[in-house]
Write a structure and sequence with these properties.
This protein is α/β, with parallel strands linked by helices. It has 3 domains: 63 residues, no CATH class; 156 residues, Leucine Aminopeptidase, subunit E, domain 1, CATH 3.40.220; 305 residues, Aminopeptidase, CATH 3.40.630.10. 39% of the residues lie in helices and 17% in strands. It binds zinc ion. The site of zinc ion (ZN) has 5 residues, from loops.
Length: 557
């Protein structure tokens, strides 16, 4: 019964003038079936065969059916407002601007809005909202504060706040911004789409987004529509992809299914090629660190490489973005405490961010040369697992003493960086990882940690972060960290002495790339996921995609 109801929702017609078509039926149905199938397999399997192949078969199907029912309203831009009704949003920095933007309303409606805003003491501060009812034919009129002199990312975040606030409403939404320029209008639409994202992937109550559109009314509508189509929507879709794959539980997303979902997401996009290294291929290359981390799991590791070269891309080596993709981090033999261990399904957020960045760039046909490298493994403690004290040999022959099997992100990245340097000849390499708890202790969720020996690269990343609202704070790579990670039995050890946990982790990774290649490490452990906020639900924040999309487009300019 319920399944049928969901199916009809999913196939209900919806306007996709600007939203890309979404041909796959009711994912929730498929997901339900998969979970049921897994449960049945677990019950049916004999103890010794609990991790045998049949367990994986249904989940492998899951990865082929990527998308859910539409998560977003269709977006329209129009020069004139539709008939009064539904939800009307007036974004403004102050009362005068709100009055001007509401010029298409009747004089008594404008007066009522002004009176109500004044009576409520509404300040039009950034991301503040005031809901008014009983005015004209509108179900609600919502004043959306933009704050003083909003930058592009402030407008995007205001859009996200209103997108999230209205995600459960079914009525048509009209945003009045007649004088806003095309770039700001596109940001508003992007934000609205980001804000509509829902993380309740397996909730029986999960519904498709309203079929009624959001209409953004402005004089610059045609130019805004083109900007949104060309660049905005690909970014929204990429963030949605990254947050979905991060929020998915680890019984659904593991290295092989991560690869399959990547293939599905990129199918048919010009200029993209995907390469995948399995365990025998990695062993042949001597990638003992990455394969070592995956050795304790029944789900084998992978190295995922997504290349994109757009028409008009500059000559020279690509921008390489390498991501930590631990699809579940139990800690391994150095097992983590139970509290919040479930969040470790999101320990692949770095890999999700770099793949999604290339998704956004390729879908928007950006004139760039970029490669995402995902170091994918599940860190589990079975009889094949690496132990504290073990020595692993990375692809470049460097030997690594494993002090702590929970410091596995740097291990998988070490082989990913060596492979990237040898096979991609990077012009620049940025790695992205939920690497250390220490970075959150230092920077909370206000900043991701940035480590680099290349000042120009650090400056470019910092400014891309500031422009997109994904802020970075540069932390040191002090030469003393070399001593902190020195081993008595091997070339290096994977856990540092001393207190700079985020810094020694970064130092370790930097030992696996030549110093003349511009390299930066982003530790996103404090910002990649968390509690609900005004612009996002609980779970993945999709951190890094906006920042890296901007960084790659600007690289070399
Ligand atoms: Zn770990």
């Amino acid at each position: 019964m319920e399944a049928n109801a969901r199916l009809s929702l999913a196939i209900a017609p919806f306007d996709n003038v600007l939203n890309s078509p979404n041909p796959e039926p009711a994912l929730s149905l498929i997901r339900t079936a998969i979970v049921a199938g897994l449960a049945a397999a677990l019950v049916a399997a004999p103890a010794a065969g609990a991790f045998a192949a049949p367990l994986f078969a249904p989940a492998a199907k899951a990865s082929a059916t990527k998308a859910a029912a539409p998560q977003r309203r269709p977006v329209r831009f129009a020069a004139t407002a539709p008939a009064p009704g539904g939800l009307l949003v007036i974004p403004a920095s102050g009362a005068d601007q709100a009055g001007a933007r509401a010029a298409s309303l009747l004089p008594e409606q404008r007066a009522a809005i002004a009176r109500a805003a004044k009576a409520a003491g509404f300040s039009y501060g950034a991301r503040k909202t005031l809901v008014l009812r009983g005015i004209g034919d509108f179900d609600q009129i919502i004043l959306l504060g933009l704050g003083d002199k909003p930058a592009a990312n402030d407008i995007q975040m205001a859009g996200a706040v209103i997108g999230r606030a209205l995600a459960g409403d079914t009525g048509a939404v009209t945003l009045l911004a007649p004088d806003m320029d095309a770039a700001a209008l596109a940001e508003l639409a992007v934000g609205f789409g980001i804000g509509e994202y829902r993380s309740d992937l397996y909730s029986s109550d999960r519904k498709a987004a309203a079929a009624a559109p959001v209409t953004i009314v402005a004089d610059a509508a045609p130019a805004a529509a083109e900007l949104y189509r060309a660049r905005g929507l690909p970014l929204v879709e990429a963030m949605e992809w990254a947050r979905d794959i991060s929020n998915e539980p680890a019984n659904i997303v593991y290295p092989e299914s991560f690869v399959e979902r990547t293939r599905a997401a990129f199918a048919g996009i010009p200029g993209v090629s995907i390469e995948v290294l399995d365990v025998p291929a990695m062993q042949k290359l001597g990638m003992g660190a990455l394969t070592g981390v995956g050795a304790g799991s029944a789900r084998p590791p992978r190295l995922l490489v997504v290349r994109y070269k757009g028409a008009g891309a500059p000559d020279g080596g690509p921008v390489v973005l390498a991501g930590k993709g631990i699809t579940f981090d139990s800690g391994g033999i150095s097992i983590k405490p139970s509290a919040n261990m479930g969040n470790m399904k999101m320990d692949m957020s770095g890999a999700a961010a770099v793949v999604a960045t290339v998704l956004s760039l390729s879908k928007s046909a950006a004139p760039v040369n970029v490669v995402a490298v995902g170091a994918l493994a599940e860190n589990m403690p079975d009889g094949g697992a690496i132990r504290p004290g073990d020595v692993l040999t990375a692809m470049n022959g460097k030997t690594i003493e494993v002090i702590n099997t929970d410091a596995e992100g740097r291990l998988v990245l070490s082989d990913a960086l060596v492979w990237s340097e040898r096979n991609l000849k990077p012009a620049v390499l940025v790695d992205v990882a939920t690497l250390t708890g220490a970075v959150g202790t230092a920077l909370s969720d206000d900043y991701a940690g940035l480590f680099s020996r290349h000042d120009d690269l650090a400056a470019k990343l910092t400014s891309a972060g500031a422009a997109t609202g994904e802020d970075l704070w540069r932390l040191p790579l002090h030469p003393s960290y070399a001593k902190d990670v020195s081993s008595t039995i091997a070339d290096i050890k994977n856990s540092g002495e001393g207190g700079a946990g985020a810094g020694t982790g970064a130092w370790f990774i930097g030992e696996f790339i030549s110093r003349d290649i511009p390299w930066a490490h982003l530790d996103i452990a404090g910002v990649a996921y968390g509690a609900p906020a005004d612009w996002k639900p609980a779970g993945s924040a999709g951190f890094g995609i906006r920042l890296l999309d901007r960084f790659v487009r600007d690289w070399g300019k």
